[in-house]
Amino acid sequence: MTSRLTIFLAACLFACSLCSNAQTITSVKGYVIDTGGEAVLGNAIIINPQDSSLIKGTSFLEGHFELSGLNQQQVLLKITSLGFQDTYLTLLYEDSTQVDAGNIVLRAAANALNEVVVMAKAPLVRGRSDGSIEINIENTPLATSTSVDEILSRSPGVVYDAEGQIGIFGKGAAILFINGVRVSNDQLSTLSPTQVVRIEIISNPGPRYDAQGQAVINIITRRNENEGVQAVLKNYYSYSTFAGYDNRTNTDLSYTKGAWSVNGNYGLQVGNDRMILTTTRVRNAPHDLFSSELTTDWRYKYDNYSNYGLGLQYDRNRNSYLSLQYTGAYEKLGGDQLSANTIIDHETGLYTSTLAWDELSLDNTLNANYVWTIDTLGANLFVGGQYASYRHDFNNDIRQSATVANTKNTTLINNVGEGNIRILSIQADYTKALKRGGTLEAGGKLAYVNNYSFTTFLNIDKNGTATKDDQLSSDFDYTERVPAGYVNFRGRIRKGWDYSLGMRAEWTNYTLLTRMEEEAALTDRYGNVFPNASLTAKFSESVNAYFTYSSRINRPSYQSLNPFVIYQDSFTSIQGNPSLQPAQVHAFELGAALHSWSIKTGYNHTLNLISGGAFQAEDDPRVYILRLSNIRKEDAYFASISKTVSTRWWNSTNTASMSYNNVIDDTGIFARRANQPYYYLYSQNRFNVGKWITLYAMAWYQSEKQDGIYLREAQSSVNFSLEKKFLKDALTCNLEVNDLFHQVRAAGAYRLGTTDILYGRKYNTHYVRFSISYQMGRLKQSGYRNKDVGASEKQRAQ
């Protein structure tokens, strides 16, 4: 019933956007003056807010200007004048096709408040000519998220698989970037959500980006480009009947004076979280009857989850700067993992366990950047380096009990260990504008990674004596070196027709050493070349089309290679697979944009697909090991249509997508099942109730998915929030209800070997949250910038 209601709500919101028949602006005029009321001379420029392209411009000598022949539902007006700050106005059609902006007051460029005049809020989503989209965070429901991971989970087109890995609907696994350079999921914990300004979803990344993954999610952080002091304080309090309370406080502070800029932040999260997984495993062969009903309840207690950062920048001159940035996280985890497993085979037994967490994670990253704008034609040089370390220590007590034939036995296990990942990388990028209008991009990167970890299981007898369990205990030492280089050329066939041709080459050299029952070492070297091509055609200011091809690779994460045992219960564990091979991906996409509409379709061909499940242990038919493996290939077809709406009182972005996936396993390990297309609906809306309050409504629905091997059940979410600003917009209060019907889940089924497996994972997504934010200080022109560079390998550090 709730799923049908979710579909109905999402469909209604989408239908409203289709029925909206917004008129268009045909002309814009205004009068530009200074703070003293005197007319000034300068330029008036009309910009397309969807892709930032120039529509029309004119100059004016005595303040008055007029631009006609526009035919746009929404435009961004930019006013420039020598000695004054650039001023922007977002203009929407209201009651007339001829918009009079009235008097536009310009502020002096030096020692003055850098104001931006806004007549309407920015659109929620902006499309680009290459099919990428830009998601605005400020003044949207995403702004109340307590973590960057939560922001992503609410973003259009971003989906999570059954293992919680981030992906893009229709494309597959996505890699994360911060300000243009790749990072890991672990590093997201060091980033304050209040620092995120927007998110770019790049479905067809070029050779400048690392070849890992099938899409790129680029997180753009707040940059202080003004002079002075500013502080932002924000607190979020969440409560759910499922997990209890959670509280997060964030503080951001920026200071700029002359050529120096400083930026710092601190965030603290305390409270509770929860996740429940139910798993059923059944074997029905006459000689092998078996059933297992397992429930695992993770009850997390965040004793102290802190993230912090400090950045320093020195502007050598107008064309170059040096910057240094440190980010870190301290995460102290307590709580319990409870499991109950009822097994029926030749006997019936109830097996329970309680794992008491005592874990500490320390993450530290240091970035150093140098940027030089060489000339006014577009030549620039970037050089950066990064050192990152991740340390995870744990000392967990496990109490197990087994009840068979009314006899109960209890055992105690102590699991201690640590994990260490160190990453060192250096990167350089050079861009040169050529004489005939083309652009040449070239760069290189050298990355070094070392991942060392160990886990020790100690069986504790009744006398308190500890005995090491050599079968479960292990060491893991992995070293990887990846030098890479790329070149990309952008050119023009004719006016409005642009193309790019590029290639990226990566050489991987790794050594893997494991110590479990016996020592094993693995060394390998391999090279890959990844071609890219694109063609874009601009037929008018509001009509364009594109075609792209990209070649990608999905390397297994360091954790998925590590045979390290993660305990779930006495019959279930999670282990890595050192034999995993990278997956190769070839992606094609064709798309077009027409005014506020956009459509795209594509095809992805993946070899050596990385997936997995619960594998039966060879030495004990009751024991199952959750691990990844390679599957021969996957063919995926997708299509999507999007519509945006911008009126004086309503902003909306809506997407309807469909995908058909066909996974083929020629090993016979996975059983074949039917295929069927599945679809995805998303609608995010902002309603301005006069100047009194803002209402946000968001809904998404993902239907049942069958790809030939796996079945994933439908899931959905409906969110509402109210926002009110006070004290000249310095104070913002927000009340939110998330996942109203508690339908966000990961549930499905598959058959592996002779075992039928059903699973259902329930998350802490149904909650009420109140957040309050206060901004202090005023800023003037200047800026701090830092580009996080070396993190190509961090995505795999999880």
TrEMBL record:
Residues in the signal sequence: 1-22
UniProt keyword annotations, A-Z: Cell outer membrane, Membrane, Signal
Domain Outer membrane protein beta-barrel: 372-774
Main location (coarse class): membrane
InterPro entries: Beta-barrel_TonB_sf, CarboxyPept-like_regulatory, OMP_b-brl_3
Highest rank taxon of the organism: Bacteria
Subcellular location: Cell outer membrane
One Pfam family in the UniProt entry: OMP_b-brl_3
A Gene Ontology cellular-component term: cell outer membrane
Protein name: Outer membrane protein beta-barrel domain-containing protein
Organism: Rhabdobacter roseus
